[in-house]
Each structure stands twice: as C-alpha cells, then as structure tokens.
Specification:
Elements: H1 2-24, H2 36-59, H3 61-84, H4 92-98, H5 100-111, H6 121-131, H7 149-171, H8 176-200, H9 231-234, H10 239-244, H11 249-258, H12 287-290, E1 306-310, E2 314-318, E3 326-328, E4 336-340, E5 343-359, E6 362-378, E7 381-387, E8 393-397, E9 400-405, E10 414-418, E11 421-427, E12 437-440, E13 445-450, E14 453-458
Parallel strand pairs: 2-4, 3-5, 4-5, 5-6, 6-7, 6-8, 7-9, 8-10, 9-11
Antiparallel strand pairs: 1-2, 11-12, 13-14
Length: about 475
C-alpha cells in the first residue's frame, strides 16, 4: 500500500509540473500527455490497474503473469491515445498497423489460455476475454461493424464475467486473495473503463485533422513482379503495326482461336464409343470404387494415456480410449480431477474431491460422489454425468449432448450453461419406484424490451 501511495503522489507531482509548463509556454500539438483525457487515463491506471496488480502480487504464479500482460496492454492503449491526437484518421489497413502494439498484447493474453488446461484457467480466460474491451479504440463509426465504445466495453466484460464468476465460486471460501483479485478486475472495466470512455470518448477516438498519416506496410519485401509490357505492345496507333507485331497474352489466345475452325482437331465420336453402347462398362459403381476415403483427422496422433496423481494434489486422466473401468478410489477434499482428451471411456470418482473438470472428451461417462467447489464440462460431446452426492455448482460450457443425472442431495446445485446444446437433466421422481424425470435445458431465449430494460425468458416448445 505504501508503494501505491508513493506512485499516486509522483503522478500528482508530474501532473502539476505539466500544468505549470502549460501556463508558462503555449501548448504544442504534440504535447498530448497533458491532455485531460490522457491525465484521466493515468488516473484509471493508478486507481484500478494498480489495484488488480497488488492483488495479483499476493497470489503470484500465472495470475501475476497474466496481470502483467494486462498492465502492459493498458500502457499500450495510453500510448495510442497520445498518438491519436497527433495522427490523422487512417484507412482500414492503416488502422490495423496503428493498433498493432495493442493487438500484440491481446494476442499474448490469448496464447496464455491455450494448451493443457491449468488450475487457473478461469483466471486466464477472464483477463483474455476482458482485454478485448480495449478494442473500443478501433471504433470509426456506426458502419464499422462493432458496437459503440460504451456498449463494446460492457459487452466484453459480460463475456469475461462468465469466467470471473467461476473464480468467485471456487475460491469464495478458500482464498480471499483470489476474490479480491476478481473484484478488482471487474471494477477496472465496470465502472472504471466504461465511465472513462463515457466521459471522454462516447463516440470513439477523435483523430487529428493535420497530424501525421499512418498507412499499411508496403509489400516490398516480396519478390517484385516482372514489369508489364509497354502500352505500345498492347495497342498500336496503326493497323499495320498491329498486324505485323506478334500479339501477347490473351490477345494471342483469341487470335489463335479465331484463325481456326471451332471443331478443328476434335475427334469424331462413333456409336461404339458412347457409354451406353460399351460392353466393358456397367451402369453402376462397384462397392470397391464407392469405398469412402479414410478421414485424415481420425488418424491424427493422440498423446500417451495418463492416469496419475500429480504432486499429491491433482488427478490427471488423459487420452484414455475405450477404458470402461477407470476408478479413483483414494480421494481427498483438497484434490482436483482433470479429465482431458478421453473417448468412449467411463471414470468413477469414489469419495469427495475439490473440483472435477472434463475437457475435450467424447462419449465419456463420469460418476462422482461429492465435489466441494464445482463440476465443470467444457468442449465435450456426448457426455453422461452422474452425481451420487452433492455439487454446489455444475458448469457446462461449449458442449453438445450432455445427460446429467442428479441425486436428491444435489437438487439444489446451481447449473450454468453457455454455448451448450442438447443438455438434459434427470432428477429423482417423488415416487421411489418411478423413473427419473427428465428436463431439457433451454437452448433458445426470447428478449423483450420493457420498462427501460430487456427481459429474457426461455422459449418453450410444445409438441403438436
């Protein structure tokens, strides 16, 4: 906290010095750092970004690394805001070149979410999704294909909030540092960045009318194309030169076609050459010819299967194919289970664990007793899950086809779905001898505008 206070005092001193210089000498066009909007962005970094960084310092590891990328992205946007006041509005190609420093930081954050899923995947995704809000600076008008700056910031945070809420659920009763970091991240965008854009750039950035120009980089690095023939070769001023000089390109092609009969050189097709009269051809395709080609993707190499406990904290079950008898018997409430890349297999988790994640699995069955935090499904298809005990939160993300069987103890679970289709939940019936009642989770929603806000209700389908 002391370092944060010193940084604020230094920023205030720098601001006073810039104001004093502005009073003593006229402000030039290039002194964008003393502009009120730039000063306000400095305040945004000092008040909100520093707060996220301080919380990340307490946690360390990947969260500290991704927060550092976030800080550099906001610094890059500040530099762009200064340059905008000294630059004329570029075209589409020039805008891409102008925003390149910011795009590099956004790409760096996205790359940190790729590869094997880490224990802090939701933290990384929350930052990567939220950083797209900085693209508000690319707004050039209502026909540019993106929402207005204020709406764009709010929409991007709503996308990131899906993952930040997962962090809150997972660490609410475990580690307050993660909760502090998540809440600071939300305050950075709402109200922080949203109010900043609303105050200074509600209609997008204001470019200079007389500043420097930015254009897309030239393609001089590629081999130069051969010089085109002189115009005199394509069209001559006299008819004699046109007829005597040999024509090139398409002119030569058309000249050769027009100088010969249309059917010259074609062979005559006799009756015995026609397909219907040939005895060596059958009127059907043999099964050997109709055999489909093997799918190249199906033959893609799969990593080695794993079934192990890593560092005594994380069960890793990876690339299990056709294994129907997988079982984790010795469980601990502090342990997590990560299932990745499995196909046509069944895993049973006997006991209580902290968290279970199923990632990129197909035709997979999972039976578990209790989870302390959450059971998560992401990027899967044709999944069957049975909860025999309790689970506070069940999350299904980007999944097609999921059968979820709940016990009486898990009926109070909070089920979250995102980009998920064909999700059916089966719950015990009141009659112990009756079959379980099946409920289909809505896939379509109706949005109606009423009393100044949108009201969202699921669309129900009734059989005719």
């Amino acid at each position: 906290m002391a370092e944060n206070l010193i940084q604020r005092l230094e920023a205030a001193v720098t601001r006073l010095e810039s104001f004093s210089r502005g009073c003593s000498q006229p402000q030039t066009a290039g002194s964008g750092s003393s502009d009120p909007s730039i000063i306000a962005f400095d305040d945004l970094i000092t008040e909100y970004v520093e707060k996220v960084s301080d919380a990340a310092e307490k946690i360390g590891g990947q969260i500290k690394d991704i927060t550092s990328v976030l800080r550099h992205a906001f610094d890059a946007q500040k530099e762009l805001l200064v340059k905008i006041k000294q630059t004329q509005k570029p075209d589409a190609g020039g805008l891409g070149e102008f925003l390149k420093p910011l795009n590099e930081k956004l790409g760096e954050a996205t790359r940190m979410t790729e590869g094997p899923r880490s224990d802090f995947f939701n933290h990384l995704k929350a930052v990567a999704e939220s950083l797209t809000a900085l693209a508000w600076i690319a707004y050039t008008g209502k026909n540019c294909g993106m929402s207005m700056p204020i709406s764009h910031v709010e929409e991007c945070w709503q996308s990131a909030e899906f993952y930040s809420n997962k962090v809150l659920v997972e660490f609410k009763n475990k580690d307050p540092s993660h909760v502090e970091w998540t809440r600071a991240l939300k305050e950075l965008y709402v109200p922080g960045l949203r109010d900043y854009v609303k105050t200074h750039y509600p209609l997008g950035p204001v470019w200079s009318a007389t500043g420097a120009t930015v254009s897309a980089p030239s393609k001089s690095s590629k081999p130069a194309a051969p010089n085109p023939p002189p115009a005199s070769l394509a069209s001559s001023s006299t008819a004699s030169s046109s007829s005597s000089a040999p024509k090139q390109g398409m002119s030569a092609v058309f000249q050769e076609i027009s100088s010969k009969p249309v059917t010259a050189g074609l062979k005559k097709v006799t009756d015995d050459m026609k397909t219907k009269n040939r005895t060596d051809r059958a009127g059907f395709v043999s099964s050997a010819e109709k055999e489909p080609k093997k799918n190249v993707a199906a033959a893609a190499k799969v990593g080695p299967p794993k079934f192990e406990l890593v560092m005594g904290r994380k069960w890793v079950v990876e690339n299990q194919i056709g294994a129907k008898d997988l079982s984790i018997d010795d469980c601990d409430p502090k342990q997590t289970v990560y299932i990745f890349g499995c196909k046509d297999s069944v895993l049973q988790v006997k006991g209580k664990v902290n968290n279970i994640t199923v990632d990129k699995c197909t035709k997979m069955g999972v039976v578990f007793t209790d989870v302390v935090a959450a059971f998560e499904v992401v990027n899967c298809s044709s999944l069957e899950v049975q909860c025999q005990g309790s689970a506070p939160t069940i999350s299904i993300d980007n999944t097609s086809g999921c059968q979820l069987y709940l016990s009486k103890d898990s009926l109070e679970s909070s089920i979250t779905t995102s980009k998920a289709t064909e999700v059916n939940v089966l719950v015990p019936a009141e009659d112990p001898d009756a079959d379980q009642a099946e409920h289909a989770m809505p896939q379509m929603y109706l949005h109606t505008y009423k009393d100044g806000q949108f009201i969202t209700t699921p669309v129900s389908h009734s059989g005719g």
